[in-house]
Amino acid sequence: MILHGESYSEAEDYATKLAKELGAYYVHAYNDPDVIAGQGTIGFEILEDLNNIDYVIVPIGGGGLISGIASVIKTVNPKVRVIGGVQSEGAPGGAYLSLKSGKIVTVERVDTIADGIAVKRIGDLTFKLMSELLDDIVLVNDLEIAKAILTIAESVKVIAEAPAPPVWLP
Length: 170
What we know:
By secondary structure, the protein is α/β, with parallel strands linked by helices.
């Protein structure tokens, strides 16, 4: 295993460069149709477990998870509102700023406890899917993320990674 860089973007740049040098295929973490399709299976699980939902709220980093879940949810039941939540105020360029401005925005710096969603730029494919499928996108701060993790730990005895996992509301 190789750890490289201080951010997801630096690690991704290095992995892309390394794949070229080695003649290997680089599988993008979120801007790949097969990865998005795989993540979309979570949408099927949500619909299978809960037959009457109004909202699904999904964390957003690069947009692969929410693109996959929203693709399934909106195909099966377009009435369900898919909200991009848990886009950290400390890393808003990924999706929030891009979707609000109508074009992909790259931020220079990210600073959040939610390192799994701390991307500086979303993908072209995920931007297109999120633009078409999301009903709304909201920002949360690190304190709200920490409180969500604590609530999950106290209520279901599970330690969630920041950000908290997707939720669905009746």
